[in-house]
Amino acid sequence: MDSTTVRSWLHGIAESMRAERDHLVALDSAIGDGDHGTNMTRGFDAVELAIAAEPDAAPGRLLILAGKTLVSTVGGASGPLWGSALRSAGRSLGDRAELSGEQLVEALAAALASIRDLGAASPGDKTMVDALAPALDALRARLAAGDPVDAALAAAEEAAGEGMRSTIPMQARKGRASYLGERSIGHQDPGATSSALIIGALRRAAAGSA
Ligand code: ADP
Ligand code: MG
Fold first, then answer.
1. pTM (2 decimals)?
2. Diameter of the chain by CA atoms?
3. Whose atoms come closest to the Cα of 76: which ligand?
4. Which end of the chain is more exposed for a tag (fewer CB within 10 A), N or C?
């Protein structure tokens, strides 16, 4: 994986957010304020413009730029959370031009650690963490078992999807949805849903560069 993979991941995220914007808005309307689809679309549209202006940037630099752009364009909880996540992932890569599966795991682990530091959510709180933590666990386990990166990412995408669906019966303990108490039960978390899309975009980008 190299800067072309990371660029295609970020473009893929922007495409997924545009395609799923209305769905994400509907999910956030049920248990939040209805802006998650527009937040993520606005943020990743701006990321596409920002990375286009830096054609020679290394993977780490692209992710740092994407993170900064999200922080400055997205007002909701997801902007600072994904912003710090991508900046941490980028910093973990330094200025290397190529990254291995293990370095990808390190970058995603740094991203998840940032989200957890900033948002203080644990698995089971009905947040993006419920999609991202199992995806990272699956990726790490499959790479450790000797699977190639594309197969490991396919397992990560599946785990993210399961994690996303697992938020339906949960009661929210973090973010706006927590204000609803028990009324948050029975709805899929919007941030877990966009997170599963982000992992899916990563799987496709890596497959394209294999
Ligand atoms: P806001 O809630 O400010 O309107 P968004 O609608 O863009 O922001 O994002 C909502 C999503 O953010 C939730 O579905 C949840 O997944 C995620 N989220 C909210 N608070 C936290 C938190 N403290 N930790 C992790 N994720 C969170
Ligand atoms: Mg919202």
1. 0.98
2. 49
3. 1
4. C
Q: How far is the CA of 176 from the centre of ligand 1 (A)?
A: 7
What 8-state DSSP symbol labels residue 174?
S
Among protein residues, the one whose CA lies closest to atom 27 of ligand 1: 127
Atom in ligand 1 nearest the alpha carbon of residue 39 = 7
Distance 60 CA to ligand 2 centre (A): 28
Cα of 145 to ligand 1 centre, how many Å? 33
The tens digit of pLDDT for each residue in 47-83 reads 999 999 999 999 999 999 999 999 999 988 999 999 9
Pairwise CA distance, residues 132 & 107, whole Å: 13
Are the C-beta atoms of 197 and 16 separated by less than 8 Å? Answer: yes
Spell out the residues 6+ positions from residue 52 whose beta carbon is closer than 8 angstroms to its own. Answer: none
Angular region, 181: left φ>0, alpha ψ -120 to 50, beta rest: left
In the numeric block, which tokens belong to residue 31? 């248990």
Q: Note whether 60 and 95 are within 8 A (CB).
A: yes
Taking the centre of ligand 1 as the mean of its atom positions, its distance from the CA of residue 130, in whole angstroms, is: 12
Q: Which residues contact 55 (CB under 8 A, 6 or more apart)?
A: none
Task: Kindly report the protein residue whose alpha carbon is nearest to atom 21 of ligand 1.
Answer: 175
- What percent of the chain lies above the pLDDT cut of 90? 98
